[in-house]
What does this fold into?
Amino acid sequence: MATLKEFLEIVGDETAADIIGVTKRAVASWRRGERYPRPGVANRIISISRQHPAGPIDHAGIYGARPNSDSDATGRSLGTLK
It folds into this structure.
């Protein structure tokens, strides 16, 4: 699976904006990691990516993998509370 950044780098900002239905500015901000697409747009990207040669993307490829429940957002262990 590709990440959103990889997908956008292969497709290009202008083409991605056209096929997703958003502005080039939005695509550029996603590619740079400044913003993330809203859930409805993310679902559209996932659907489009399944038929695109650049490869499929899933939610983890857009938003990053979810940390384990026993770790914080940085992946550090929270340990056990006693």
Remarks:
- Residues 11 and 77 are 37 Å apart (CA to CA).
- Residues 4-58 form one domain.
- DSSP finds five helices and no strands in the chain.
- The mean pLDDT is 88.
